[in-house]
Amino acid sequence: MLLISVLFFSCKKENTNVIRKTTGEVNNIAVIIDDQQWNGEIGDSIRNKFASPVIGLPQEEPLFTINQYPVKLMEGFMTDSRNIIIVKIGEKNNFTINKNQYAEPQNVFHISGKTGAAILAIFQKNTPEIIQIIRRTEIEECQRINKKALLDPRIITNKFDIKIDVPSDYKYMIQESNFIWLKKELVSGNTSLLLYQVPINAIKNKNNLVSNIIKIRDSIGALYIHGKEPDTDMITEEAYSPYFFKIKLDDKVTYEMKGTWELRNDFMSGPFINYAILDEENQRVLFLEGFCYSPSKEKRDFMHQLESIIKSVTVLKKGTVK
Length: 322
What we know:
The chain has 322 residues and is α+β, with helices and mostly antiparallel strands. The protein has helices spanning 2-16, 35-38, 41-50, 116-146, 154-160, 209-224, 300-310, and strands at residues 20-21, 28-32, 65-69, 83-89, 94-99, 103-104, 107-113, 162-163, 171-176, 179-186, 189-199, 234-236, 243-249, 252-263, 269-279, 284-293, 314-315. Strands 9, 10, 11, 12, 13, 14, 15 and 16 form an 8-stranded antiparallel β-sheet that branches. Strands 3-2-4-7-5 form a 5-stranded mixed β-sheet, with helices on one face. The chain has a two-stranded parallel sheet with strand order 1-6. Helix 3 packs parallel to helix 4 and helix 4 (116-146) packs across helix 7. The longest helix is centred in the middle third of the chain and has 31 residues, at 116-146. The protein starts with a helix and ends in a 7-residue tail after the last strand.
């Protein structure tokens, strides 16, 4: 009995130290704030920043899904959320970020101020950092989910000298020497990944970067992505200019483009993301692109998964693949 009681105590003690895992859908935020503040200027500011439209989507969808809870209900299931913003009146004006406070992986942002105006000022100042941290956390969470069942990487690695975590529910549509098309079927449509490469001088003229990249992706659409009718190939939608950013992927200069595609002479369309990675060592531009067709569904989370797949890329040195 003594031995049993010791074991029971040890197990109980051990269990109290176990950190819970976070739960919930991607791109969700729990905002802990009293109803009076939520229904006022502070709540308006939070909604304007965190529920602003996602760029590059054909219809407006919020950047994050916000779930609001009063401060008195803070204990409970919402503490298992990956992203929590706690806003309250306090004795000091303060902003802190706690990692894994109640579960992991988790970001808990504490915003307190002596007055509502002080809270607003702190919130406005720190919003860009909060969004950046949450976006990174949600990409990492999606990559963790993707890794549960991965496509055999050898075909992609052998063709392009890269490693990339593609979920196993993607299937090969086309395989050529410098081009791969992978597609995942959805109830409402499908999502696709394109991998292709061109010589680095194809976009070296920096004065026409955007137009050069659009010409390349449209030429790929003309070659490989067609509708059921003749002369219906995929092009960058002409009515709206895509968003364009210079970032880094795998520590390499990368041009990120987000916009909408359409089928020429057809009615099909949807969002796309395109990453042109400058691989100076191998004298090429590696293109990784994701696009979605899902006319009856919201597309934010589909595009988020495509982005998380692409951002898992590692460019290998030539000759390292066996």
